[in-house]
């Protein structure tokens, strides 16, 4: 629908509908995990950046956490490095880790930061290594330099947000000692961006965690988008998993939402990042657009 199709009354109604949500979330913290198709399309990139800037402008303390799987894959191909996956997780040797760090902490992180600045916002790009914000221990098994987050130091994020600036965080962590030798201390470790966002949200006691995906939310029937489950409780999430409603890629997304809620986050949302301004529609309208998980 084009702008000309909206009457002035409709425009006003949308703004009035957003008002109580803006008032409710002002001064609260919302963590957004940005990834998937929303990072591939210029139109969707701009929509996400505009959403995040608007959130910051109305007083919402906003953290943007990102991955960058497709960019990593593209750089590995350019360098002739073959990708290897173990149980769906990228095997990361030291050479691959160099590329992961270069792409996530360098190219992708700084591109997002620059886009926010270019669009009139203020942002600082960080990784989990900065200030040892995300400390991780290497995962047992044959995954190489892949880590599980052990702790989050949110003090730097709070200081940045207190200054009215948006932290943009890439999913590379500061390695801590695994076997008593100290070999991993300070080494970069590849971590899951959804998990990083969930643990950051929990450490900040955030109002919300928002995960952007390539589906419209949790579907009761994965073949039918009209079967979208708009609201589910934390306990019902476990039931959906047992019933097999949650499957494949949605299971880790749901697990991250559960991790966040168990850590003190009030609500979590799974949104379709393929739709422009999905964040604003979910946060500031009565109907929303994805799946909301509550306590």
- Tally of contiguous helical segments: 9
Instruction: Write the element-wise H/E pattern from the N-terminal end onward.
Output: HEHEHEEHEEEHEEHEEHHEHE
SS strand fraction: 15-25%
Q: Per CATH, which architecture?
A: 3-Layer(aba) Sandwich
| CATH-defined topology | Carbamate kinase
Secondary structure: number of strands = 13
Kindly give the count of domains.
1
Indicate the overall shape. Answer: globular
Distance between the termini: 35 Å
The biggest sheet amounts to:
11 strands, mixed
Helix share of residues? Answer: 40-55%
The quaternary structure here is: single chain
Gyration radius, in Å: 19 Å
Q: Could you tell me the mean pLDDT?
A: 93
| Overall SS class | alpha/beta
Classified in CATH, the superfamily is Acetylglutamate kinase-like
Question: In CATH, what is the class?
Answer: Alpha Beta
Care to describe what's here?
The protein has helices at 8-25, 42-57, 69-78, 94-118, 155-162, 193-203, 234-243, 250-262, 278-284, and strands at 29-34, 61-66, 85-86, 89-90, 123-128, 134-138, 147-152, 166-175, 188-190, 208-213, 231-233, 267-272, 291-294. Helix 6 runs parallel beside helix 8. The two termini are 35 Å apart. The longest helix has 25 residues, at 94-118. The chain is globular and about 65 Å long. The strands form 2 sheets. Strands 1, 2, 5, 6, 7, 8, 9, 10, 11, 12 and 13 form an 11-stranded mixed beta sheet that branches. Strands 3-4 form a two-stranded antiparallel sheet. It has one domain (27-289): Acetylglutamate kinase-like (Carbamate kinase). The model has no long low-confidence stretch (mean pLDDT 93). The protein is of the alpha/beta class.
